[in-house]
Design goal:
Elements: E1 13-15, H1 33-44, H2 48-57, H3 74-78, H4 82-105, E2 113-116, E3 120-123, E4 126-129, E5 135-137, E6 142-145, H5 148-156, H6 162-181, H7 183-193, H8 198-219, H9 228-238, H10 241-247, H11 262-275, H12 282-285
Helix pairs in contact: 4-6, 6-8, 6-9, 7-8, 8-11, 9-11
Length: 286
Amino acid sequence: MRLNRFNPGNIRVRRGGGGGFPGGGGGKIGCGGLLVVIVAALVFGVDPAQMLGSMEEMQQGSPGQPYGNGGGSVADICNDNQYSYEACSALASLDETWEPVFRAAGIPFEQPELVFYQGGTRSGCGAAQSAMGPFYCPADHGIYIDTSFYDQMARQMGAPGDFARYYVIAHEYGHHIQTLTGISRQIRQLQQQKPQQANSLQVAMELQADCYAGVWAGKNRDRIEPGDLEEGMGAAHAIGDDTLMRNAGRAVVAESFTHGSSAQRMQALRLGLETGDDTQCDRIIG
């Protein structure tokens, strides 16, 4: 996907400070996070149940730290490597695409902050580590990513390509949209009122974020290159809950899905891509 070079003065980016994963805390599982947790369990002996429980506790979060470009200028951070450059370019495009949509709807818009870190860091929602995958923290409006995740996507999930990487950022940006519009808060309230539907509501919210990712791409269709759609669909398939469970040697249990099946994720992404209309994504929530 051909994206314009980012303007350092128009995006919010910083390096994450140090921080680990001491006995709790964590982050919302982001795009593909479940597979990384499973890989961590198999390779590093991490208890996935403990990690997933800690991530769930982080959903509501606490007030974040003041914004700052710790560790260098925006340009320095974004130009650190190919992956960070791509992520910053995607962030700039996402900001430029969604701000007019909010303005037209009369909803206040605020840019999210893209936070790069290695190994572990602290977010406004608590401690985080790269084994959780990319995640969005509603407390500080931060999209957190250890770019080594992109290598895992390509090697372990079979989801290479720049569009697959853009999809990761665009999905987490979708959670930012849900936060600004109040959808995220409404879903959390419904989950408390109807705990028996908590999982299905979580899946709906994740699928809507996939749809929003597709809307961004659909609104920038003139920048899509041959092979991009295949990369996106391949990534959406690779991170479906059923595919992750099979690849981890686990039985597929639909009731335990958190992000949706491969077919559902592909369908949600395609809906956004084909329509370029964010209101179509409301159908997923119902």
